[in-house]
Design brief:
- The structure is a single chain.
- Helix 1 packs across helix 5, helix 2 crosses helix 3 and helix 3 packs parallel to helix 4.
- 44% of the residues lie in helices and 17% in strands.
- It has a single domain, classed as Rossmann fold (3-Layer(aba) Sandwich), CATH 3.40.50.
- A six-stranded parallel β-sheet has the order 2-1-3-4-5-6, sandwiched between helices.
- The protein starts with 12 loop residues before the first strand and ends with a strand.
- The chain is α/β, with parallel strands linked by helices.
- The chain contains five helices and six strands; from the N terminus they run βαβαβαβαβαβ.
- The chain is globular and about 45 Å long.
């Protein structure tokens, strides 16, 4: 019979990338559920070498392998498409897609090497489904993320590595005050990472869709 620590009994090391109240709520929920989170902001993550070094640092501090990755969107600036330079476009996509991909693959490689299960939860905006002026790079990366997550869910299903997406406006609210929605976000992330969701992968769930 399963012994419960919090609601989900995770008991795994988790790398959480992001900042803000939404991420704090996620970290609190993971800790309540028995996970051991290592939290880092997006800054100084540019390429595969940065990501590999981050995983090494996290695993050294946690004294064990990472089994959970939670990656939250970085704050994005708004600019109309006709004024957006190529360098600005690439910088936005690198932060929202490239580094996220590097982190996801790094977790998978480490889990596969040890034949361990893994769980990835991407937190993103709703811009893939809801158009918003001045956010073309964020919309493009949000749409690409959904496709990437579904594709990796199929590719890595046999390796017991799951990938899911939560779309929410809470990431856009730097001073988010809705405690119930933040609690829902944390609980959903914990559920996605738990054994209760062992056969749930490639999905997208929205919070604060109103």
């Amino acid at each position: 019979m399963m012994t419960m620590i919090g609601p989900w009994n995770l008991g795994a090391n988790a790398l959480v990338i992001g900042s803000g109240k939404a991420v704090t709520a996620v970290v609190d929920a993971l800790e309540t559920s028995g996970a051991h989170p290592f939290v880092v902001a997006h800054k100084n993550l540019r390429d595969e070498l940065d990501v590999r070094a981050l995983f090494e640092r996290a695993e050294a501090q946690l004294a064990g392998r990472i089994g959970i990755l939670v990656y939250a969107d970085a704050p994005t600036s708004t600019a109309s498409a006709d004024t957006l330079s190529y360098l600005e476009w690439r910088a936005a996509l690198n932060a929202s897609m490239d580094v996220r991909f590097f982190c996801t693959v790094e977790l998978a490689r480490r889990c596969m090497a040890d034949q361990r299960k893994g769980a990835v939860v991407h937190l993103t905006s709703r811009r893939a489904e809801q158009a918003e002026g001045g956010a073309i790079a964020a919309a493009a990366s949000a749409g690409g993320l959904l496709t990437m997550s579904m594709s990796l869910a199929v590719e890595w299903g046999r390796d017991n590595i799951r990938s899911n997406v939560i779309a929410t406006r809470l990431l856009d609210k730097v001073q988010a005050q809705d405690g119930e929605q933040l609690a829902s976000l944390g609980a959903l992330v914990s559920y996605y990472c738990s054994d209760y969701a062992s056969y749930i992968t490639g999905t997208r769930i929205g919070i604060d869709e109103g």
